[in-house]
């Protein structure tokens, strides 16, 4: 699971002309207003030697990191891409955790486009924090992406606490969705690994081993397979999540 900090032309990726990029971004301005880009992120790349910041506790079953852990200054630059079609794309990334099956972290790329001829070896799910881009299939289909509006239709309850969830990807061992919950406390048990990114609100997650983490907007968390514990929602929470068997 990746948290994208895309700036690929406001951001565009994969064999895409700048005219197509301009057309896409202009359509966004027309539909959302020019103010949409008033606070656009800088397209400058992170410094080649990234300063350190406090890493998650590797000995805790709960891998937790605030947004600052995955911010631009803390990403490690990979330098310019060796091949590209246009622009000057430079990658940078930082890993949050990797249990051998599930890997989570952040990726950034400056403006540019390139061909990606090799197939992915694993399913990759990403949530875009900033910027816009495009993935182009071999058949010419274009898939544009940008920061997500999570106000999807929601349904369901968590015991007596008012909550709702919507799964919008369910293929093989991987599921992706959005979940929201009103203040309250309840017990949870996750059969599969779970990654989530908090969009709004405040909650505490506590394991049976006594480990507890306060989670607020911008925090990223990964829970291991078979994790059980308690959730205490202090302020109404909304999160995007991914599970994998």
How many strands appear in the DSSP assignment? 17
Which series of helices and strands comes N to C?
A: EHEEEEEEEEEEEEEEEE
Rg over CA atoms? 19 Å
Low-confidence stretches: 5-21, 32-45, 47-52, 152-156
Helix percent band: under 10%
What would you call the shape? globular
Instruction: Determine the structural class based on helices, strands and strand pairing.
Output: mainly beta
Strand percentage lies at 35-45%
Mean pLDDT: 78
The biggest sheet amounts to: 8 strands, antiparallel
Distance between the termini: 14 Å
> If helices are DSSP runs of H or I spanning 4 or more residues, what is the number of helices?
1
Written overview of the protein:
The chain has 245 residues and is mainly β. The chain has 1 helix and 17 strands. The strands form 4 sheets. Strands 2, 11, 12, 13, 14, 15, 16 and 17 form an 8-stranded antiparallel sheet that branches. Strands 3-5-6-1-8 form a 5-stranded mixed sheet, with no helix packed on it. A hairpin with a 5-residue loop joins strand 9 (133-136) and strand 10. The longest helix has 15 residues, at 18-32. It is globular. The two termini are 14 Å apart.
Summarize the structure.
With about 240 residues, the chain is mainly beta. The protein has one helix spanning about 20-30, and strands spanning about 1-5, 65, 75-80, 85, 90-100, 105-110, 110-115, 125-130, 135, 140-145, 165-170, 175-180, 185-190, 195-205, 210-215, 220-225, 230-245.
């Amino acid at each position: 699971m990746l948290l994208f900090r895309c700036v690929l032309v406001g951001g565009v990726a994969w064999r895409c002309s700048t005219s197509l990029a301009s057309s896409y971004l202009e359509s966004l301005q027309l539909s959302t207003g020019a103010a949409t880009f008033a606070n656009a992120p800088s397209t400058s790349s992170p410094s080649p030697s990234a300063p350190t910041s406090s890493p998650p506790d590797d000995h805790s079953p709960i891998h937790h990191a605030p947004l600052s852990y995955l911010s631009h200054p803390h990403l490690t630059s990979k330098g310019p891409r060796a091949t590209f079609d246009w622009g000057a794309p430079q990658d940078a990334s930082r890993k949050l955790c990797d249990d051998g099956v599930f890997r989570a972290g952040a990726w950034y790329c400056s403006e540019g486009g390139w061909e990606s001829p090799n197939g992915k070896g694993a399913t990759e799910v990403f949530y875009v924090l900033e910027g816009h881009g495009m993935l182009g299939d071999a058949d010419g289909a274009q898939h544009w992406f940008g920061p997500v509006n999570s106000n999807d239709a929601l349904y369901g309850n968590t015991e007596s606490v008012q909550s709702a969830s919507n799964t919008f990807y369910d293929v093989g061992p991987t599921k992706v969705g959005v979940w929201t919950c009103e203040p309250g406390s309840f017990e949870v048990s996750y059969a599969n690994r779970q990654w989530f990114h908090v969009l709004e609100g405040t909650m505490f997650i506590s394991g049976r081993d006594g480990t507890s983490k306060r989670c607020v907007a911008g925090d990223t968390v990964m829970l291991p397979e078979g994790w059980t514990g308690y959730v205490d929602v202090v302020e109404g929470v909304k999160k995007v999540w991914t599970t994998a068997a």
